[in-house]
Amino acid sequence: MYHSQYFQYIQIHQRLNALAHCNYSAASGGVSIHVHPHWLEIWNSGALPEGATEQSLLKGQISILRNPDIAHVLYLRGLREKAGRGSVLMVQKCLGNGLPSPFWKSDPKLGVAVTFSTPEVMKLLKHLTGEMSRGDLQDAIGLRDAEHFRKTYIHPVLESKALEMAIPEKPTSSK
User: Fold this and answer.
1) What's the number of CA atoms in the CB half-sphere (13 Å) around residue 173?
2) What is the pLDDT of residues 136-167, one digit of tens each?
3) Could you give the number of structural domains in the chain?
4) What is the distance between the alpha carbons of residues 5 and 48, in angstroms, rounded to a whole number?
5) Which residue range(s) make up the domain with 88?
6) ∠ Cα 100 33 168 (to 5°)
7) CB under 8 Å to 132, separation ≥6 — which residues?
């Protein structure tokens, strides 16, 4: 499946799932979804439950629903999986569609974000070690074509805000 088509599927499926986990008691509560050709981010105002970590989500060990009634209705309609299996199924579906595993970022004050990226974005991030020049990154990945590297790797990572330019006011700088 083409990445953006898969991102659309994830967007719909995870928007429904996020409704069951959202913290509606907070005035700033909500869900937001950012869809781009090379990455997708779903943010939820609710923090991870006590004892849950980004790593425990990958194992499906903890599931505490803030809204069990919403979750139950979605489950009965086939729009949500059994409690505690969502993160594991997301990883399996990503890998089954040639995409890297999603990654979670949690902050008790800011909420939880799960990001899905294309293999190119994840490959670049894996090779990133501190501040690196474009040329160093390109060499680390083993690519020769600078234009292809910029379009397929650098631009999507910059758009996702997972990477920043060292000197943003000089976009053609090698840093």
Assistant:
1) 11
2) 999 999 999 999 998 888 888 887 777 777 77
3) 2
4) 28
5) 3-117
6) 75
7) 140
In angstroms, rounded to a whole number, what is the distance separating the alpha carbons of residues 120 and 165? 18
| Two tokens, residue 54 | 């980004």
Q: Is the entire prediction scored with pTM above 0.70?
A: no
Same domain as 108, residue 59: yes
Same domain, 112 and 124: no
Please give the Cα distance from 115 to 39 (Å, whole number): 7
Classify residue 32: in a domain, yes or no: yes
If asked whether residues 60 and 129 sit together in one domain, one would say no
- Both 80 and 129 in a single domain? no
Dist. CA 4–CA 59, nearest whole Å: 26
CB contact at 8 A, 91 and 99: no
- Which residues on neighbouring strands pair with residue 93, listed in sequence order? none
Distance in Å from the first CA to the final CA of the chain:
35
pLDDT tens across 90-143, in order?
Answer: 888 888 877 778 888 888 888 888 888 888 887 888 888 888 888 899 999 999
Same domain? For 35 and 52 the reply is: yes
pLDDT over threshold 60, residue 3: no
Task: Quote the CA–CA distance of 157 and 144 in Å, as a whole number.
Answer: 18
Contact 99, 119 (CB under 8 A): yes
